[in-house]
């Protein structure tokens, strides 16, 4: 079944617009084994829209037209579709009344007469109700092509697609898709590629995609089953197991979770508490830990000790450690972690100190140099890293390393 | 001049892909008064690509084809364009040699023979050098249409567009565009709309766009001038002045800066220092302040006092303030700000305490309730706010409010 999407609107051809609608529609179609063959984006010129509709109707079995159904001068999808198919537009007073009522109910003042154009329906089309806006959708058949017209705003389009378009497509789909996202940190993309070499499935129902972003890598596994609404995806399970064998504890989640969520769950499971001491990350690490709902159960306190005096006073970092080794040193990181743990009385404390740049680097201590430390009852560990990138990228990677240090320690079965 | 973009690649029709290439190309074209009339995204089916090229060549004066020039089986743009135009592909040994050399220089092992296909050029086409990858681009003319083939990866495509396509388009453009971004906080979108009513320019060279996001609103002003490389945009200046008159100190930047950057500049100009005490924002506020390069000049310390014991010990919040009014109260916020200022010895201190949710709300203190305080030598101010949204949205808005409180105080001419 050949499917095409036609997105209408001159704003879609300007640089500030990202078309999220068709990403979402494509995902839902792919899930049941339907592919989008072509996507066209066209401006508000009625001649251009007419041409696009005419061409697409000749090629496609399903054409989804999005946008251009509103009340303004620029909204020409209704008129263009009618012209492309050589059908009249019919005025439907009951639609006019429902738009008018909706408008007046919201107390927005006088009802603009321009809204009347939204009450016109292409001859032979069914009306698709829009519970979140004024412009209704339409559905009609021309030759061998089903045409669906939907309004452009995502909060109107997506619920309408789910409720009125999707259920009918389910019957025409070929099956269902299972998905699994493995998240990895502490290893580079090329090392991951080397480790999983030979596991890429040949083209077929099972797919493996690697997505690399800052400080983490995602492996997306998807399996398509010809069974509609399949309960099991054996190829996906087997591939996920092999990936786990190859990547071991570099994998921090097999369910697509954030690193901070995983760390939070591990802390909670032990009934353990955490404090953070930060210099170069400036609050980002505590901010990530506390972004998780319910984190107050384990996170007690963060010390953003940017100034050296704060490191000394709040964390008890000895002044001579800073004088001898510098504030960016393994010794300072260790003292910060131990001081944070002591001051807050927590089971664990993480510390980060480094040079996030763009200024402040020296030949011995370049921009990107970061020391990370973890203190617990049994001891202390520190790690030296040099990250590449902009200030925000260095900061994110430093926080990521700190969280991963804690994850690895919490994942050990025996000792703390 | 009718311009079309054709993006080739089945991956572009999957949900994980966002087409940033054409956003950037569109921006550059718009800047000189050239509009994109149509954008088409097509998969790797050679018949579909041939059809797209044939149709577009009939309509457009310039067709930019992106992607599908690589060495793999899926890369069919070269073959499809040749077929669509009825021209042969000619083998160019010098291209083969340069691809081979580039490959071997990078020490990636044996040269895969599949790379040979990248050495074929459509008859009559000029070769466009690709300094950042193997696949060269091509440029040719068919009838009245210029066709440019560019590789898909942004880091290859964008530099080639800038160096080889853009300079020639400049001559065919109609002028240049000036842009200004005003950033606003502390007022809702509908209030902004009411205040600027009547200032929207009629359709013409001057454009005003409102973009609303979490806790802030952007007004984008753009003026197109028929003069190429115009130095002045008088309509833009005049509209920006009127917008400033209407919106006053709700505007925190007329140069598109972040609120934390503006606050940092104001602190630096005074030689003043800052500390932050945070509960519900959990480090986000300090994290935003320290995201600005050079912030160590004014930011001294952050206290992420999540637990009540931390508020009492680190900030000296009186235990009976918490017992009487609760940790989420104007009294607690004020005590936190004063305590942070006292402990860190800074000129200013901001404090935030609230309920970010999703749990922890009560009828008297619902999720989204946030108290923000600012302490300075002359005194203290506190504000109560109730934000709507998810946990991350409530936290961002709370930090935004705190930063704006400081911005407003620092913007006063006379007292501190």
Oligomeric organization of the protein chains: homodimer
- Biggest pleated sheet of chain A: 6 strands, mixed
CATH class of the largest domain in chain A: Alpha Beta
Biggest interface, chains and residue tallies: A-B, 72 and 72 residues
SSE order of chain A, as H and E? EHEHEHEHEEEEHEHEEHEHEHEHHHEEEH
CATH topology of the largest domain in chain A: Molybdenum Cofactor Biosythetic Enzyme, Chain A
Shape, per Cα inertia axes of chain A: elongated
**Compute the gyration radius of chain A: what is it?**
29 Å
Structure in words:
Two copies of one chain form a homodimer. Chain A is of the alpha/beta class. The first copy, chain A, folds into three domains: 3-172, Molybdenum Cofactor Biosythetic Enzyme, Chain A (3-Layer(aba) Sandwich), CATH 3.40.980.10; 176-253, Alpha-Beta Plaits, CATH 3.30.70; 259-411, Alpha-Beta Complex (Maf protein), CATH 3.90.950. Chain A is built from 13 helices and 17 strands. Chain A has helices at residues 20-31, 46-59, 77-85, 93-105, 154-172, 189-195, 234-247, 259-270, 284-289, 308-315, 319-325, 330-344, 391-411, and strands at 3-8, 36-42, 62-66, 89-91, 120-122, 126-128, 137-142, 145-150, 176-184, 206-213, 216-225, 251-253, 274-278, 299-305, 348-354, 369-376, 379-386. In chain A, strands 2-1-3-8-7-6 form a six-stranded mixed β-sheet, sandwiched between helices. In chain A, helix 1 packs parallel to helix 5 (154-172), helix 2 (46-59) crosses helix 3 (77-85) and helix 8 (259-270) runs parallel beside helix 13. Chains A and B meet through helix 1, strand 2, helix 2, helix 9 and strand 14 of A and helix 1, strand 2, helix 2, helix 9 and strand 14 of B.
């Amino acid at each position: 079944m050949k499917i095409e999407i036609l997105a209408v609107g001159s704003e879609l051809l300007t640089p500030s617009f990202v078309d999220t609608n068709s990403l979402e529609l494509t995902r839902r179609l792919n899930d049941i084994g339907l592919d989008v063959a072509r996507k066209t984006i066209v401006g508000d010129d009625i001649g251009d829209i007419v041409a696009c509709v005419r061409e697409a109707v000749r090629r496609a079995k399903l054409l989804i037209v999005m946008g251009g159904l509103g009340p303004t001068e620029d909204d020409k999808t209704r008129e263009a579709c009618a012209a492309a198919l050589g059908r009249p537009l019919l005025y439907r007073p009951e639609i006019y009344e429902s738009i008018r009522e909706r408008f007046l109910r919201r107390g927005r003042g006088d009802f603009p007469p321009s809204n009347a154009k939204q009450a016109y329906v292409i001859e032979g089309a069914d009306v698709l109700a829009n519970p979140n806006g004024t412009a209704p959708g339409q559905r009609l058949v021309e030759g061998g092509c089903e045409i669906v017209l939907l309004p452009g705003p995502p909060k109107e389009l997506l619920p309408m697609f789910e409720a009125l378009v999707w259920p009918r497509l389910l019957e025409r789909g070929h099956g269902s898709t299972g998905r699994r996202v493995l998240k990895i940190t502490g290893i580079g993309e090329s090392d991951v590629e080397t480790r999983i070499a030979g596991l890429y499935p040949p083209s077929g129902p099972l797919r493996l995609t690697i997505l690399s972003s800052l400080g983490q890598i995602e492996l997306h596994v998807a399996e398509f089953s010809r069974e509609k609404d399949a309960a099991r995806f054996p190829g996906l399970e087997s591939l996920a197991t092999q990936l786990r064998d190859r990547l071991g504890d570099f994998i921090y989640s097999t369910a697509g979770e954030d690193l901070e969520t995983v760390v939070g769950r591990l802390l909670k499971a032990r009934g353990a508490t955490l404090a953070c001491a930060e210099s170069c990350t400036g609050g980002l690490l505590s901010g990530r830990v506390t972004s998780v709902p319910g984190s107050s159960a384990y996170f007690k306190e963060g010390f953003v000790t940017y100034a050296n005096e704060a490191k000394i006073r709040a964390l008890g970092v000895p002044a001579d450690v800073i004088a001898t080794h510098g504030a960016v040193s393994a010794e300072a990181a260790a003292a910060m972690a131990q001081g944070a743990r002591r001051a807050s009385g927590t089971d664990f404390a993480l510390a980060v100190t480094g040079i996030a740049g763009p200024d402040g680097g020296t030949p011995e201590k370049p921009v990107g140099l970061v020391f990370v430390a973890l203190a617990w009852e049994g001891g202390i560990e520190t790690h030296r890293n040099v990250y590449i990138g902009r200030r925000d990228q260095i900061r994110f990677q430093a926080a990521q390393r700190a969280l991963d240090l804690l994850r690895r320690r919490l994942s050990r079965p025996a000792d703390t």
